[in-house]
Request: fold
Amino acid sequence: DTGVSQDPRHKITKRGQNVTFRCDPISEHNRLYWYRQTLGQGPEFLTYFQNEAQLEKSRLLSDRFSAERPKGSFSTLEIQRTEQGDSAMYLCASSLRTSGGPGLNEQFFGPGTRLTVL
Amino acid sequence: GENVEQHPSTLSVQEGDSAVIKCTYSDSASNYFPWYKQELGKRPQLIIDIRSNVGEKKDQRIAVTLNKTAKHFSLHITETQPEDSAVYFCAASDGSGTYKYIFGTGTRLKVLA
Reply:
């Protein structure tokens, strides 16, 4: 499968615990996005990387959340001191920015990590 | 903040009929509008997209129209089939340069056989 992959697919944790999710984008894609999707809602933007640089963070991303993309390939999203309100599907998407192109290229989504905080 | 509104939230149609989903956006700098289909428990999948320099785009039974002046765009599915049943999300790219998507709240489409 050459698409975007995410691990784990499901995570159940107790309130107060830390969790880390991983996203592996399509190999040549230089842009990576994290979104959060709650039941019955559309995905909400969390953060964006171009290569290894984190260029934008949503105000939804409190200081308990941190994301990295150390070598411009895979990315991790960590949530510290989880709260019940963090329960959601965390989606990763990647796209390719081509030099000289319009910059607006399709984002390919991963299957998501479903987090349940008890 | 930037916003995308989507209507209706649920839509039931008979097999073979047409379905229309409408969205409005607030960011006048948005210039790319994708539509995603999400089946239960699966990832969102792009079904069609339109750029701001085009008013209409069609791909077999699916079409999208864009009215930049009114900041409206719509998805049209003709000759609906049971396998079209899913949740559909519209989105608008933000105009800031990150090209992140602002999504609508989704439309649950049910095609009745």
About this structure: Residues 24 and 72 of chain B are 4 Å apart (CA to CA). Chain B has a mean pLDDT of 94. The first strand of chain B starts at residue 4 and ends at 7.
